[in-house]
Amino acid sequence: MAVTDVLGGSKGRGSGAPWRNWAGNVTARPARTVAPASTEELAAAVRTAAAEGLTVKAVGTGHSFTAAAATDGLLIRPERLTGIRRIDRVAGTVTVAAGTPLKDLNRALSAHGLSLTNMGDVMEQTVSGATSTGTHGTGRDSASIAAQITALELVTADGSVLRCSAGENAEVFAGARLGLGALGVVSELTFVVEPEFLLTAREEPMTFDEVTDRFGELAAENEHFEFYWFPHTGNCNTKRNNRSQGPAAPPGRVSGWIEDELLSNGVFQVACAVGRAVPAAIPGIAKVSSRALSARTYTDIPYKVFTSPRRVRFVEMEYALPRAAAIETLRELKALVERSAFRISFPVEVRTAPADDIALSTASGRDTVYIAVHMYRGTPYQGYFGAVERIMTAHEGRPHWGKLHTRDAAYLAEVYPRFGEFTALRDRLDPERRFANGYLRQVLGE
């Protein structure tokens, strides 16, 4: 069955309008902005930019905290390059235009009784933005969104269109699944999907000592395990998601609103604002906040379990660590907070992923634990993030490509065994650096 234009798009933006990311920490002033509605229009825009000597960057919905999409050249916006292009039930795949938001893809798949196997906890991103920067959820066996790609379409520096899969342009496919926008502009992606299933989520408080002592057991026994540690406390909140035969039992309308909107967003927003104004109050607020969320169990379709609303704005840094180094690193992080003057209002998030075979994936070649730290938007974060980063890099950590870090190409070449393979592919596909910007020069070199 083929489905075309299930999802619509909106009109493009005016030329050269300033662009700002979701967190507000990155601003770009492109020379020109376009919003193509097809692969052909996208390719024509790249050719025109090349003729004019402009660099080119595509932007999603701005959920990266780095300047990965910033440009002073041609900015390609996603809002008209949207929609499901094909659903192949026999192959178990969906092909979708690159600018489609994950939230729209999830809802459309659900309407057809289908689902992605795993996803992150935010679904505002476009599919190409999420995959190009390595967005991931948590999973014992199922990896990042990029690892679920089976084919893609790429507009390269001369405006030609490459169709890539394991059987066609395989070398390009190997890199472009998570390409940072360095190899070209992705115009469509094909993901493996499966019949929609149910997940039972079990959320409950646990002490830091218990969750770190039992981490190996909890990660092995659950399909999807994650936890949040509240700095200045010994308290965590854990979440275990496992497949269920049902029946569906979603959170009640009132109780779900209290947990997901009032406590996790509304009250938390107020607490963060108070903490920004009066940092000395943060440890006390943290002790109250860490006890506010109660244990609960519910069963629902995947995207309603994996994802959650994020209305409190923040900046974030996340590192991917070898699984064996996770607990030592967490204990060092807790000791850092306890001995320092830092006042941290956001919980630390811990997730897992299996090794994959993507050159620039943060889980490339090794089973991985992710540790993410956040600060409320407008709060000075550099000292805290810098101290955390020193801990992470001491354990061969790999920074998330879309989240704040200071690592450069020399460091990254040491922690990614296939780094040179990717940069050689970039040299071949974009020798004139049509798709370069300051961030790519930092992380990939000139």
Task: Explain the overall architecture.
The protein is built from 14 helices and 20 strands. 46% of the residues are buried. It has helices at 39-52, 102-111, 127-132, 170-176, 208-213, 215-221, 253-277, 282-289, 302-306, 326-339, 382-394, 409-415, 419-429, 438-444; strands at 19-20, 27-28, 32-34, 56-58, 74-76, 84-88, 93-97, 114-115, 149-155, 161-165, 185-192, 194-195, 198-207, 224-229, 235-244, 296-300, 314-322, 348-353, 368-376, 398-399. Helices cover 31% and strands 23% of the residues. Mean pLDDT is 92; it is low at 1-14. The strands form 5 sheets. It has an 8-stranded antiparallel sheet with strand order 16-13-15-14-18-19-17-20. The chain is α+β, with helices and mostly antiparallel strands and 446 residues long. Helix 10 (326-339) runs antiparallel to helix 11. It is globular. Strand 1 (19-20) and strand 2 form a beta hairpin.
